């Protein structure tokens, strides 16, 4: 019997559309940021990245455009692409916008809690707790963001969901770049408490807990001056992400 290909095997370009290739490279770079393998100010040099991913400069630059649009990188004249730096003011604005959306969301969910099923959200919080306790930083950040996104999706407002998707992506990068890793369970505990209040139909407590939760995160970031002082070995960093041609 023919064995199936391992999940960590190199991607075959013939099996991937242009969008899938772009997403593969985009996600690899974002994951490296979330895992703190790329710090603010680190240069993304094209030649080693093209070799690492097995793509042309045209493909890589297409991904750079999306990364720049999403504030993941900055493209500077004569310097090229660099991992973006984010100010304390920007962080404050992101969390203020999230607060306005998410406080309104939990209030509405509490009003109709009797008609909602929270089992998927509770399972997500359990996964989040497990990954954080295990020290899987990047996976925890993603699951934490998914919790907030699933909450707003339950409210069935596509406009609010779209706005929050963008804000959560920005927040995830800020957490990956600037928050001090602490292997505790505070995030999952706070998420469980918010769910409890919503399920009980307690609008006041649900909104208070969400406000405190977001305020807590907004104050945990530490701006670092640890910009890259030497060129990173990008070829080695992304050596397992190559897209093979046939």
TrEMBL record:
PROSITE patterns: HTH_GNTR. It comes from the Bacteria. Keywords: DNA-binding, Pyruvate, Transcription, Transcription regulation. Residues 19-86 form the HTH gntR-type domain. One of its GO terms (molecular function) is DNA-binding transcription factor activity. InterPro entries: GntR_C (IPR011711), TF_FadR/GntR_C (IPR008920), Tscrpt_reg_HTH_GntR (IPR000524), WH-like_DNA-bd_sf (IPR036388), WH_DNA-bd_sf (IPR036390). The keyword Transcription regulation applies. This is GntR family transcriptional regulator, transcriptional repressor for pyruvate dehydrogenase complex. The lineage of its organism: Bacteria, Pseudomonadati, Pseudomonadota, Gammaproteobacteria, Moraxellales.
């Amino acid at each position: 019997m023919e064995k199936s290909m391992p999940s960590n095997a190199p991607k075959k370009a013939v099996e991937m559309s242009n969008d899938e290739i772009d997403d593969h490279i985009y996600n690899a770079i974002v994951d490296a940021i979330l895992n703190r393998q790329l710090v603010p100010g680190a240069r993304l040099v094209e030649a080693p990245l093209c070799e690492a991913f097995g793509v042309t400069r045209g493909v890589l630059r297409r991904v750079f455009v999306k990364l720049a649009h999403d504030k993941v990188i900055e493209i500077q004249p004569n310097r090229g692409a660099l991992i973006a730096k984010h100010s304390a003011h920007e962080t404050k604005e992101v969390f203020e916008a999230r607060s306005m959306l998410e406080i309104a969301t939990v209030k509405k969910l509490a009003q109709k809690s009797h008609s909602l099923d929270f089992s998927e959200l509770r399972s997500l919080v359990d996964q989040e707790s497990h990954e954080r306790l295990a020290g899987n930083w990047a996976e925890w950040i993603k699951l934490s963001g998914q919790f907030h996104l699933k909450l707003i999706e339950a409210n069935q407002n596509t406009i609010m969901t779209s706005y929050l998707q963008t804000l959560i992506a920005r927040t995830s990068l800020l957490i990956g770049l600037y928050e001090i890793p602490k292997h505790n369970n505070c995030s999952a505990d706070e998420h469980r408490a918010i769910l409890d209040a919503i399920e009980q139909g307690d609008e006041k407590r649900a909104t208070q807990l969400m406000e405190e939760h977001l305020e807590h995160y907004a104050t945990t970031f530490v701006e670092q001056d640890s910009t890259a002082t030497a060129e990173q070995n990008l070829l080695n960093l992304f050596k397992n992400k190559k897209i093979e041609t046939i």
